[in-house]
Specification:
There is one protein chain. The chain is built from 18 helices and no strands. It is an all-alpha fold. It has a domain of about 270 residues: Ferritin, CATH 1.20.1260. α5 crosses α7, α9 packs antiparallel against α10 and α10 runs antiparallel to α11. It is globular, with a radius of gyration of 21 Å.
C-alpha cells in the first residue's frame, strides 16, 4: 500500500460513535428519547455556514438545474387560495374510515396486545389513539418542513453555482408554503399539535450546524426530503379526506423536484471526493437513516396516551422491524438516490452493509429522483390531477 493510499483510508467509527448507541435496534434507548417543547417556545442552533458570493452570473451553465428552476417557477401554487379550506373535516370519522379501508394500518393483533393494558382498550380508546397519531404525524410533517425552510435558505447562501442558488430560492418559497398549509390544517382541521420528535430534532440540529454545504444537501435534500416524499405518498394513498389528499398532492409535486435538486447537485461532486471524505458522508447518511427510522416509533403519542413504559417496550419488542412495510417503504426514495451518488459502495460497501442490516437495501434498484421528478410536477394547480 502506498503512502497516499494509507492517507486515503477512512477512519473507522463505530456505530456507537455515530448514533450514540452500539445496538441500532436498542428499543429502550429509542423509546426513552421523547421530544419536548422548549419552555421559551424557541430552539436555537449554532449555524456555522459561510456565505459565498459568485461573480459568474451565466444562467444555464448547469443545464439540468436550470431546467428544474424553470419548472419550479411555473409550478408555484398558493396555499391560501388553491386549496379547498371550506371542507369540514370530522377527524374521528377520518380515523374510522382509515381503519375500515386499511385495517392493516392498525398495526396490532390480539397476540401482540396480550398481557398489556392495550388488550383492554375500548373502541373509544383506540379511536383516540388514531386521532393522536394523526395529530402527531401532521405535526412532524410541519416541523420537518420548517427544518427544510431553514436548510434551503442556508443552501442559497453557501452553494457556489448561480443555477443552484436560483433553484434553491424557489425551494425556500416552497418550504414556507408547506409550513403554512400543514400548520393551518393542524390548527383548523385537527385537534392538537405535538412537539418535534426527539430523534428528528437531533438530525435537524446536525444538518443545520454542519458548516459544509454538501452536508446540508445530503441531510435535507436526500435524506429528510426523500423520506418525506415517500411518507406523503403513503398518506396520500391511505386517506380519503379530500382536503388533505389535495394538500399532499401539491406538496408531493414540490418535494419530487427538491429531491432531484439534491441528487443533481451532489452527483458530480461526490465522484471527485476521496475515500475518507466519502466515508464521512456515508456515516452521516447512516446516522440520518437511523434517526428517521427511530422517530417512526411515535414516542410522544405513547407518552401522551399514558401507556405504561413496560407495555410500550413489550409491544415494540413484539414487532419485527424487518416486516414493518410502512417503515421500510419510507426508504424507497432514499436508497436508490444514495446508490446514484455512489455512497452505497464507497469504502468497501460500508453503507450497503448497514442498509442490509436495516432491511432496506432491496430498494436500491428503484428509480432515483432524477428519473421520477416529473411524476408529480405536472404544471400549475389548475392542471394537476389531484385524485
Amino acid at each position: 500500500m502506498t503512502t497516499t493510499e494509507r492517507e486515503e483510508t477512512p477512519e473507522m467509527r463505530s456505530t456507537e460513535q455515530i448514533i450514540g448507541r452500539s445496538d441500532v435496534n436498542d428499543l429502550e434507548a429509542i423509546l426513552s428519547f421523547i421530544g419536548k417543547q422548549d419552555e421559551s417556545g424557541k430552539h436555537n442552533v449554532v449555524d456555522n455556514c459561510e456565505a459565498e458570493f459568485t461573480w459568474d452570473y451565466e444562467k444555464g451553465r448547469l443545464q439540468k438545474l436550470d431546467k428544474l428552476y424553470e419548472k419550479a417557477k411555473g409550478a408555484q401554487w398558493n396555499g391560501n387560495t388553491d386549496l379547498p379550506w371550506h371542507i369540514e373535516v370530522d377527524q374521528e370519522a377520518v380515523v374510522m374510515e382509515n381503519f375500515a379501508t386499511h385495517p392493516e394500518q392498525m398495526g396490532w393483533n390480539d397476540d401482540m396486545l396480550e398481557g398489556t393494558s392495550l388488550a383492554k382498550w375500548s373502541e373509544k380508546e383506540w379511536l383516540q389513539f388514531g386521532v393522536e397519531n394523526q395529530n402527531w404525524t401532521l405535526s412532524q410533517f410541519m416541523h420537518g418542513e420548517q427544518g427544510a425552510l431553514l436548510c434551503t435558505a442556508k443552501i442559497v447562501e453557501t452553494v457556489p453555482w448561480i443555477d443552484a442558488k436560483y433553484y434553491a430560492a424557489t425551494q425556500v418559497v416552497d418550504e414556507a408554503r408547506h409550513v403554512e398549509v400543514f400548520s393551518r390544517y393542524l390548527d383548523t382541521k385537527m385537534s392538537g399539535h405535538y412537539p418535534l420528535n426527539g430523534h428528528l430534532g437531533l438530525l435537524l440540529d446536525d444538518i443545520i450546524a454542519d458548516s459544509r454545504w454538501d452536508m446540508t444537501y445530503l441531510g435535507m435534500q436526500i435524506m429528510v426530503e426523500g423520506l418525506a416524499l415517500a411518507a406523503f405518498g403513503f398518506m396520500h394513498q391511505l386517506t380519503q379526506e379530500p382536503l388533505l389528499k389535495q394538500l399532499l398532492r401539491y406538496v408531493m409535486a414540490d418535494e419530487a423536484r427538491h429531491v432531484a435538486f439534491g441528487v443533481l447537485s451532489l452527483q458530480e461532486l461526490y465522484s471527485e471526493l476521496s475515500a475518507s471524505e466519502m466515508r464521512e458522508r456515508q456515516e452521516f447518511a447512516f446516522e440520518a437513516a437511523v434517526r428517521m427510522r427511530d422517530r417512526l416509533r411515535s414516542q410522544e403519542v405513547w407518552d401522551r396516551m399514558g401507556v405504561p413504559w413496560n407495555d410500550v417496550m413489550t409491544l415494540m419488542g413484539r414487532q419485527d422491524p424487518n416486516q414493518d412495510d410502512f417503515q421500510i417503504l419510507l426508504f424507497s426514495k432514499i436508497v436508490p438516490n444514495l446508490r446514484k451518488l455512489g455512497l452505497l459502495d464507497a469504502a468497501d460497501g460500508w453503507l450497503r452493509e448497514k442498509f442490509t442490516e436495516m432491511g432496506v437495501i432491496a430498494f436500491e434498484h428503484l428509480s432515483d429522483s432524477t428519473e421520477d421528478e416529473d411524476a408529480f410536477a405536472d404544471g400549475s394547480p389548475v392542471s394537476r390531477q389531484v385524485a
